[in-house]
């Protein structure tokens, strides 16, 4: 399938920007897929005006009609899943079956929030005098500036769009410049399903220029960002200065604790399937492994065996178990993390060096005996490296796991219920998986604290950031 020339979307119409040229790369070859022009200051202004207009129409649209538009979008995405997944494979690099699963999850998210659109209930409060009425209603917060990254080009965007649109907000989104076509396809389906022009606008360009302009704009009332802690910190400062609400879904560095009672081979099988999905480029993935010393050698051997068995190749090739990383920055980051760990006396069990071929390839890598001082135990790797260390008792494991600036996800593998409960209570994380590595689904809240940001996406909690509460007292 030929990759389409990406474009901005303003007031429901595709248009080239009048700013700088953006080149989209194919991660499986490193070559150019397409060029297009990003947004200039004038384009950003046009998107703001379109969103202000779209918001007036969309907020006045009954919730049941908003539900209908979101459901039709979900249906259309499912019908179009193979084309949309191909776009993800082309611009992000992941294997086709993962891209298909991502489209399905995005469609499920539209369905979940379609139903939630009808559930933004207010309440009646007993009044203080006869005949009086005291009631609250939930109102959309206004126009939302939404910034989504390249690792899950569909789901990360839809986890913002679906609740914002369900609430009656209009959105100006700036998805990652690396993955514009998936975002455009989603916007296109929303438009075809009946979303009024201007209720969603897409901008691409210079991220800092666009975010600064949108956060300062009087049109925008809410900021939602998914990405790195460093950028989140900047945007939160700007949003704070402008007194705008914000949701910050930032990085994670989830610990997985493999306990003495766990079957080390079964644990390694479960972890190999989760860890190398999306080439490890996921904020909730387990990225530090603490294994009870009695299980350590068997766990490391099996994880390395599983890692070696993964065929690394283009996402379009059915045999590929793992695709390339999404950009060259990640490959460089992996090389630096490995050399730092080796200097700190870690052992490379498998992988460890970029694959010498065109494209952004780094193999599934297992590092053993990684000391807590190594950079990979402190920095979010966001790639296919599994650093492993041994522990002797549960308190030590908890202390190691919680010795992190991040607090997003945490995992436990154990067959012992009291140990599971103790660790689930003791881990400093917003989402915890016990004998599972699935913690982000449309119907569940997901969000972190500390360097992982604040606020939730998913579940009924994911609608809240897009709603204001209004109180009316009728005497
Ligand atoms: P980055 O920090 O420059 O960018 C992260 C994301 O933020 C990208 O999508 C980018 O387009 C966007 N961005 C950057 N500057 C921005 C700005 N001023 N305003 C608005 N958006 C802006 O780096 P990167 O190389 O793309 O990613 C590096 C790190 O980011 C990763 O190692 C990982 O820690 C983190 N990350 C996290 C997630 C997540 O799901 N939480 C997703 C992607 C990247």
Automatic annotation (TrEMBL):
Keywords: Oxidoreductase. Residues 18-471 form the Aldehyde dehydrogenase domain. Belongs to the aldehyde dehydrogenase family. GO terms for molecular function: succinate-semialdehyde dehydrogenase (NAD+) activity. It comes from the Bacteria. The keyword NADP does not apply. Signal peptide: none annotated. GO terms for biological process: gamma-aminobutyric acid catabolic process. This is Succinate-semialdehyde dehydrogenase / glutarate-semialdehyde dehydrogenase. The keyword Oxidoreductase applies.
């Amino acid at each position: 399938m030929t990759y389409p020339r990406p474009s901005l979307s303003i007031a429901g119409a595709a248009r080239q920007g009048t700013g700088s040229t953006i080149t989209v790369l194919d991660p499986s070859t490193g070559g150019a897929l397409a060029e297009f022009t990003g947004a200039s200051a004038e384009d950003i202004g046009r998107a703001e005006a379109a969103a202000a207009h779209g918001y007036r129409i969309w907020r006045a649209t009954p919730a049941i009609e908003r539900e209908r538009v979101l459901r039709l979008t979900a249906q259309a995405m499912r019908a179009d899943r193979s084309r949309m997944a191909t776009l993800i494979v082309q611009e992000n690099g992941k294997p086709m079956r993962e891209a298909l699963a991502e489209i399905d999850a995005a469609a499920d998210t539209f369905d979940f929030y379609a139903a939630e659109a009808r559930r933004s209930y207010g309440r009646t409060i007993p009044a203080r005098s006869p005949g009086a009425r005291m009631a609250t209603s939930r109102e959309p917060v206004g126009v939302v500036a939404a910034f989504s990254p390249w690792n899950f080009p569909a789901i990360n965007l839809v986890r913002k769009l679906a609740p914002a649109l369900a609430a009656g907000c209009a959105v100006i989104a700036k998805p990652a410049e690396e993955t514009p076509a998936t975002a455009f396809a989603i916007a296109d389906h929303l438009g075809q399903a009946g979303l009024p022009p201007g209720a969603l606008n897409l901008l691409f360009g210079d991220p800092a220029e666009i975010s600064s302009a949108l956060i300062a704009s009087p049109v925008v009332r809410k900021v939602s960002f998914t990405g790195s802690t460093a950028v989140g910190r900047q945007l939160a400062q700007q949003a704070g200065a402008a007194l705008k609400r914000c949701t910050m879904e930032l990085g994670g560095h989830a610990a997985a604790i493999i306990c003495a009672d766990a079957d080390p081979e079964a644990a390694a099988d479960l972890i190999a399937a989760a860890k190398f999905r999306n080439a490890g480029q996921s904020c909730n993935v387990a990225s530090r492994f603490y294994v009870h010393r009695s299980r350590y050698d068997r766990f490391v051997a099996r994880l390395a065996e599983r890692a070696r068995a993964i065929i690394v190749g283009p996402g379009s090739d059915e045999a590929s178990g793992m695709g390339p990383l999404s950009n060259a920055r990640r490959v460089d980051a992996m090389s630096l993390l490995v050399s730092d760990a080796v200097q700190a006396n870690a052992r490379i069990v498998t992988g460890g060096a970029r694959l010498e071929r065109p494209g952004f390839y780094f193999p599934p890598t297992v590092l053993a005996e990684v000391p807590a001082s190594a950079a990979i135990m402190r920095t979010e790797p966001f790639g296919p490296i599994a650093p492993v260390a041994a522990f002797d008792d549960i308190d030590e494991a908890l202390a190691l796991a919680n010795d992190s600036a991040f607090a997003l996800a945490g995992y436990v593998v154990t067959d012992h219920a009291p140990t599971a409960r103790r660790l689930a209570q003791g881990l400093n994380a917003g989402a915890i998986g016990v004998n599972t590595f699935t913690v982000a689904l449309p119907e569940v809240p997901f969000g972190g604290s500390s360097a992982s940001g604040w606020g939730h996406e998913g579940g009924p909690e994911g609608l809240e950031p897009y709603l204001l509460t209004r109180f009316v007292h009728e005497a």
